[in-house]
Amino acid sequence: MPKSLRALLWALTLACSATQADSSAEYALASAHPQATEVGAQILEAGGNAFDAAIAVSASLGVVEPYSSGLGGGGFFLLYDAQRDHVTMLDARERAPLAAHHDMYLDTVGNVDRDRALNGPLAAGIPGLAAAWEHLAEHYGRLPLAKTLEPAYRQAKQGIPVDNRLKQFIQHRRETLQRYPASTVFLAESTLNQPDHADTLGQLMTEGAGAFYEGALADVLISGVREAGGIWTHEDLQSYRIIERDPIEIHWGGAHIISTPLPSATGIILAQVLQMLGEDWLQEPDSIAHAHRLIEALRRAYLDRAQYLGDPDHQDIPVDRLTSMEYAKERMADFNLERASDTMVPGAAAPKDGHTTHFSILDAHGNWVSATLSINGLFGSAFVVPNTGILLNNEMDDFSAKPGALNLYGLIGSEANAIAPGKRMLSSMGPTAVYANGRMALLGSPGGSRITTTVLTGILQFMQGADAQTMVSTPRLHHQAVPNVVFAEPEALTPSKISGLEALNHMIETANPWSNMQVVVRDSHNRLQAASDPRGIGRGHVGTLQR
Ligand code: GLY
């Protein structure tokens, strides 16, 4: 090789290694608990991608925030695979057991027995989280479950400090947790150790998450559930499947919004409300008329939710029509600028919180995950299956147990969301991504029926240029048709707006803060932000990988 060429190659090699040494890439994530965010960062820094981090963060949340989500529950993972330029939603929603039936929660006089619908193993749908881990690891991740589940295993084994939030939630569900011997594991004072939960995670680390659905662990789950009055069978577990679904994609006001399809209502409601507002809405001055239009659009979309939405694999649901502009115009044809519409159904106050969780992750390769997971109410059904540490959900209450009867969130439903064997219950969980003005945001939240309006507020804020911190902090408004009340966080409406809306016949109730949004933003210069809702205890983190 001529000397000059060798010198050139050497110079190129040096230049390349200098580029490699200096080259770095940022990642960002936000979750509802600092220890889960830390676990996600560890996995990304150990060579995992966003999908590996999603497994690790969700496993950790099940340990450090056991009142919100976990192996006994399910949820939705909205994700983008940068290499395949592919966006999809993993539907890990619980299913009704095959022995479930339409009237299973009705008492002898035909009223819903709220205790059976909410507490104990009869309230639990067939969980999907373990199947989601298996699916993510097999089709999207780079690391084995032995690696991604290890931090959660350690947290469960070594114990976690009982923070004030956990203490308060334990107190709230103490009486029901005390009904079930294995659930008393949560009645900890200063350190919460979960040895059975750790052993179960250890089993999934060695045998794969499929062990949840078949084999020795499945046997223990079925016998534990049935001995305590539940109706699960082996067939329920063996036949559970993750479904990859096409998200709802909305083009509105120059933004591209990607959100959840059925069996979540959120993507459809977002499409409906945004079209009912009209694309000029964002440019209009903030006024009483502006808020009035938003409230009226929400009223109509939530009434449609109750009437039409449910599991798309169990009945035909007119999604194309509901999300069309033509329908939005028809629906707003009776909109009266001078007066609120009547909601012709009675209602009680909607409780504010679903104990659900959200995390958003963007890795250094451009992959992202926006995931909302749940066991439904606080500590789910409060039933831990003996010898497993697995706290079961009470998602069966998300079905309409009786047309017109209110569920935990004050939501009503119809036959579209009635109970049937193997059916997925309608959800509000709405992990979402928005692309607008060269920027991108990942967002989502718990909040039961208020998830949808929390996400909507985040989208509208983002489209007006808000950063991640502003998105999580902005005061929120909520209206779900039934009850006929506009709920407002303090500061969400000025006193003059409240009196102006009341003059239009709206009922306004100022309520304590709700939801717990976790946001990641990539700005138009590819700089990242991560923010966790100040209403919760979570953490956002932006880190740099050296590569
Ligand atoms: N369990 C709350 C929801 O899915 O909407």
Give the topology, please.
Blueprint: H1 3-22, E1 24-31, H2 34-45, H3 50-64, E2 74-81, E3 86-92, H4 114-118, H5 129-139, H6 145-148, H7 150-158, E4 160-161, H8 164-177, E5 191-192, H9 195-207, H10 216-227, H11 234-238, E6 243-245, E7 248-252, E8 255-259, H12 266-277, H13 288-308, H14 319-322, H15 325-331, E9 356-362, E10 368-374, E11 384-385, E12 390-391, E13 432-436, E14 439-443, H16 451-463, H17 468-473, E15 477-478, E16 486-488, H18 495-503, E17 508-510, E18 518-522, E19 528-532, E20 539-546
Parallel strand pairs: 16-17
Antiparallel strand pairs: 1-9, 1-20, 2-3, 2-10, 3-6, 4-5, 7-8, 8-13, 9-10, 11-12, 13-14, 14-18, 15-16, 18-19
Helix pairs in contact: 2-3, 3-7, 7-9, 12-13, 12-15, 12-16, 13-18
Description of the molecule:
This protein is of the alpha+beta class. It has one domain (1-547). The chain has 18 helices and 20 strands. The chain has helices at 3-22, 34-45, 50-64, 114-118, 129-139, 145-148, 150-158, 164-177, 195-207, 216-227, 234-238, 266-277, 288-308, 319-322, 325-331, 451-463, 468-473, 495-503; strands at 24-31, 74-81, 86-92, 160-161, 191-192, 243-245, 248-252, 255-259, 356-362, 368-374, 384-385, 390-391, 432-436, 439-443, 477-478, 486-488, 508-510, 518-522, 528-532, 539-546. The strands form five sheets. The chain has a seven-stranded antiparallel beta sheet. Strand 9 (356-362) and strand 10 form a beta hairpin. Helix 3 packs parallel to helix 7. The longest helix has 21 residues, at 288-308. It is globular. Residues 1-23 have low confidence and may be disordered. Residues 354, 356, 374, 376, 395, 398, 427-429, 448 line the site of glycine. Glycine binds at residues 354, 356, 374, 376, 395, 398, 427-429, 448.
